């Protein structure tokens, strides 16, 4: 039997997970079918692709050589499939919030648009809480959420990006001289945020205790956070790549400095989020399959 697309899809899923059971779960196949497809591919190629003596299973040298070619085959088929998809397909609504601009564009160009088509994609600027609510009410199909939903019965998640938190402060002598910021250093400031307070890591609680006054900024308002920070009375917890974020793009002449927090330094993770009962819907399934292939681990910045 000549290798077929399904063999490459199964090979990639097994390579990602190192487990027949996990690969079967991702592909919605019986584990026996996954094992059968891998054996067929190995038999046709005349090589062993996996070292099954380890847990999880690992790629052999032959498997490593096949990996980039299998990815290219599956990606090319996805692009062809997108080219001929009907233009009357319902739009895919994706909740978005601030992300590094290069990461956001790469995610759209490599993961989402090839699966749904440019004309079928609708981006909705929403904060994390609004995205979760919209997913539950089926008002969006996918979300990019800054909050891990543990043991949620309705929603599933895949971590895409992990960013280090820093603090943005007014560029005044009081803060300019600081190398690292402790909770006591920010007494008297107000917190400006377009991040839901419920998504802040627990390690920020000592800082939040010093900031009883909070001004919430709509995530869809460009430069809204920067305007508050520039007034000299606010601070905000932001990703270290703050100036690369689409909603944090700052003009020249800003009066804001970024400083690391005193150890431990917290991180924030962006999760691709979807409803469990919509996992098999097309093209949601295509987006998720591409995302699992491209993000076996979250990118760290």
Q: How would you explain this protein's 3D organization?
A:
By secondary structure, this protein is an alpha/beta fold. It is built from 10 helices and 12 strands. It has helices at residues 5-17, 20-27, 31-45, 61-83, 101-116, 128-136, 173-176, 205-208, 224-229, 284-294, and strands spanning 50-51, 58-59, 92-96, 121-125, 142-145, 155-170, 190-193, 214-216, 234-239, 256-259, 267-275, 299-300. The strands form 2 sheets. Strands 3, 4, 5, 6, 7, 8, 9, 10, 11 and 12 form a 10-stranded mixed β-sheet that branches. Strand 3, helix 5 and strand 4 form a beta-alpha-beta unit. Helix 1 packs across helix 3 and helix 5 (101-116) crosses helix 10. The longest helix is centred in the first third of the chain and has 23 residues, at 61-83. The chain is elongated.
In the predicted model, the low-confidence regions spanning at least 5 consecutive residues are 246-253
Return the structural class: alpha/beta
Instruction: Tally the beta strands.
Output: 12
Compute the gyration radius: what is it? Answer: 22 Å
SSE pattern, N- to C-terminal: HHHEEHEHEHEEHEHEHEEEHE
Shape: elongated
Name its key features:
elongated, two-stranded antiparallel ribbon, 301 residues, 10 helices, 36% helix
Write a concise synopsis of the structure shown.
This protein is an alpha/beta fold and 301 residues long. It has helices at 5-17, 20-27, 31-45, 61-83, 101-116, 128-136, 173-176, 205-208, 224-229, 284-294; strands spanning 50-51, 58-59, 92-96, 121-125, 142-145, 155-170, 190-193, 214-216, 234-239, 256-259, 267-275, 299-300.
């Amino acid at each position: 039997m000549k290798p077929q697309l399904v063999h490459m899809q199964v090979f990639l899923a097994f390579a990602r997970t190192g487990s027949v059971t996990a690969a079967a779960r991702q592909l919605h196949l019986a584990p026996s079918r996954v094992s059968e497809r891998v054996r067929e591919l190995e038999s046709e190629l005349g090589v062993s692709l996996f070292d099954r003596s380890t847990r999880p299973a690992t790629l052999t040298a032959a498997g490593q050589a096949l990996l980039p070619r299998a990815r290219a085959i599956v990606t090319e088929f996805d692009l062809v499939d997108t080219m001929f998809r009907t233009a009357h397909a319902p739009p895919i609504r994706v909740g978005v919030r601030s992300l590094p601009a290069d990461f956001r564009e790469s995610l759209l160009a490599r993961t989402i648009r090839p699966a749904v088509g440019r004309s079928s994609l609708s981006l909705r600027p929403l904060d994390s809480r609004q995205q979760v609510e919209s997913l539950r009410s089926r008002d969006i199909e996918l979300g990019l959420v800054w909050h891990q939903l543990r043991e949620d019965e309705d929603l599933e998640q895949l971590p895409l990006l992990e960013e280090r938190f820093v603090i943005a402060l007014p560029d005044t002598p009081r803060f300019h001289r600081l190398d690292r910021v402790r909770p006591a250093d920010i007494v008297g400031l107000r917190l400006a945020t377009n991040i839901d307070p419920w998504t802040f890591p627990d390690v920020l609680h000592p800082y939040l205790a010093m900031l009883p006054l909070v001004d919430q900024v709509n995530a869809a308002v460009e430069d809204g956070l920067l305007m508050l920070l520039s007034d000299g009375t606010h601070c905000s917890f932001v990703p270290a790549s703050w100036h690369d974020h689409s909603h944090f793009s700052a003009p020249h002449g800003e009066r804001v400095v970024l400083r690391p927090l005193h150890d431990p330094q917290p991180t924030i993770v962006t999760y691709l989020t979807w409803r469990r009962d919509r996992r098999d819907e097309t093209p949601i399934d295509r987006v998720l399959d591409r995302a699992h292939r491209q993000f076996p681990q979250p990118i760290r910045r």
